[in-house]
Design goal:
This protein has about 110 residues and is mainly β. Helix content is about 5%, strand content about 50%. It contains 1 helix and 11 strands; from the N terminus they run βββαββββββββ. The chain has one helix at about 25-30; strands spanning about 5, 10, 15-25, 35-40, 45-50, 55-60, 65-70, 75-80, 90-95, 100, 105-110. Strands 2, 4, 5, 6, 9, 10 and 11 form a 7-stranded mixed sheet that branches. A 4-stranded antiparallel sheet has the order 1-3-8-7. The longest helix has 4 residues, at about 25-30. The radius of gyration is 13 Å and the shape is globular.
């Protein structure tokens, strides 16, 4: 398995979750890593990305609530999600170097 995502679950609106994605070294090493999500009936969308040097990007709907980070020693990228809303409900996928993780379900109840 090249990318292994974990950390999804069911949470009430306003709550928090942290997603993790462990990657093989060849994918992770100094490369851009990203989190995408896909809600039912919608296209997959980019949520956040982080470069090898730590520069980040967030889609407007999650700015100020989500934070992407990476641990280069563990080849792992994280997505800290705070102040979750029902519209954040989706399957979340990590992505790197053409590889997709298996997806982890995040469900936010209102």
């Amino acid at each position: 398995v090249q990318l292994q995502a974990s950390g999804g679950g069911l949470v009430q609106a306003g709550g928090s979750l942290r997603l993790s994605c462990a990657a093989s070294g060849s994918i992770f090493s100094n490369n851009l890593m990203a989190w995408y999500r896909q809600a039912p009936g919608k296209q997959r969308e980019l949520v956040a990305q982080i470069t090898g040097s730590g520069s980040t990007y967030y889609t407007d709907s999650v700015k100020g609530r989500f934070s992407i980070s990476r641990d280069n020693g563990k080849n792992t990228v994280y997505l800290q999600m705070n102040s979750l809303k029902s519209e954040d409900t989706a399957v979340y996928y990590c992505y790197g170097q053409g590889w997709w993780g298996q997806g982890t379900q995040v469900t936010v109840s209102s």
